[in-house]
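Study this protein:
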Amino acid sequence: MYNIEIKKTDSTNLDFQQLVKLLDADLAIRDGDDHDFYHQFNGIDTLKHCLLLFKNEKAVACGTIKFYDDNKAEVKRMFVLESERGQGFASQLLKELETWAKDLGFENLILETGVNQPEAIALYKKCGYEIIENYGQYQGIETSLCFIKSIITK
């Protein structure tokens, strides 16, 4: 049996920064020549709403939300260590991010993921996210897939 803890933090957290480095290394392989385009939109220097998931006091997963507009926040930097995948940690983090965004007054979460990330696409679909037309900087980018989910209760 193991102990799971989810902590709220920001992008100055060293555990968060280490997980993001591993995420970026993974994305550089998956995205290939497109990596530099995507990387420019994924800076972490000003992220204020980051989550870390700890398994037995070791940071194994992360995710964050950032302001997009008055009723939408954007999910960014979702990552689970390869050795820890398949245990439901990404779904757990996503639910916590949804709750946090709702508490902050947002009505919807949006996100972008790459077509070369089938695990992420499956996760978002499983968690109730719907594919939308690419937004913002992802408009017209064929290797991007964008999603939305309403987080308000009706």
